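Comment thread on ticket #2218

A.B. wrote:
> Attaching the input chain for the structure job we discussed in standup.
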Amino acid sequence: LGQCKFLPRYPFAKPKIESDQSEFAVGKTWEYECLPGYIKRSFSITCLKTSKWSDAQQFCKRKSCTSPGELLHGSVLIPKGVVLGSTITYSCDQGYRLIGDSSATCIISDNIVTWDKDMPLCETIPCEPPPAISNGDFYSSSREDFFYGMVVTYKCHVGPNGKKLFDLLGEKSIYCTSKDNRVGIWSGPPPQCIPPVKCPIPEVENGIMESGFGRSFSLNDTVMFRCKPGFTMKGSNIVWCQPNSKWNPPLPKCSKGELLAGGYRNKKSRPPYRHGDSVTFTCNTNFTMKGNKSVWCQANGTWGPTPLPTCESELLGMWKLVGFKLCIWVIVFFLMIFLLYYVSHHTVHPRFPV
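C.D. wrote:
> Ran it. Output below, let me know if you need it in another format.
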C-alpha cells in the first residue's frame, strides 16, 4: 500500500496538531489552519493513492491592506494589488520632489496587515535666490521664495526721466528648473548690464540698405543690404551690432563685373539678385565648364553650391597637357644620361694575359 511522508509545510498555514510521524497511510487526513495575514479558516489535507498530500493552495487567501489613497501632486503605482506581500511605489509630478520613502510593502504587524511605511509628501522644488547683477535688478512675483517654474526678469538701471544708461547683454529672463527632480537650479546665467553700445553707421560701397534705417545703432540692431544693379555681393547681406560696438559678420562688399570669367549668364537673369534667385551660365567658345552650370543666391548673400563653376580655356588645357608631357620627356632624358654616365664609369673591364 502507498504511504505519504512527513506533514507538508506551507508559508500560509500550519498543522493544528504538530506531528513528527514520518509516514501516513493512504486516506489519512490532517487539519491545518491559516496563518495571520490570511483569511482565518481551517481545512484538511488527505494522503492520496499517489503517495502525495492533496493540494492546500486554494484554502488560504491573503488579506489586503487598506487602500493607500491619493498622493497630492503625485501618483501611486500599484502593480500587483494591495494584498499581503505587495509593494507599491510613489512618485511626484514634474516640479515636485518626494519627501519620505518612495515605496511601501503590505506586511503583518501585531497579527494584522498594514503598510510598513507612511505615505510620503510631494513638495514644490525650491531654488536659491537668483544671482544679483551689477547696475541692474530682477523682478518676479516674490523676492523671498522661489520655486520650480517661477520666472525672474532682469532690467538695467535707468537715469532721470528714464534715460538709458546700460544695455542688457544676454537673456533677460531665467526660470527655476531641475535636472534630477530634487534640487532646483536656474535655467541659465543672468544677463549683464554693460555701457551703452553704439555701432558706426554701416556703409557698403555700391550697396543699398534695405532695413535697419536709423541715425544710431545699438546692441543687437540688424541691418540688411543688397547691391546696386550690375554689382555682386560677397559676404552676408545681414549684419548685427555686437557688444564690442562692431558689426558682425563684417560688412559685405559689392563688386562690379560678371559672376563668371570666360562665360555668360542666361538672358532671363538680371541683377539685383535676391534669396532664392538662380543664374545659369554658358561658357564661351573654346572654353570648358568645370562644376555646376547653375547657382543660387543663398540666405547669407553668397552664391552656392560651392565650389562655383569656372570656364577653363581649352587652349590652356591643351598647353597644360603639352607641358606635362614635355616634363615627362625631360625627366626621362636626364635619367638616361645619368644611367649611361653611371655605367661608363663603374663598369669593370676584364683583363686578358698577353
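A.B. wrote:
> Thanks. Noting for the ticket: The chain has one helix and 29 strands.
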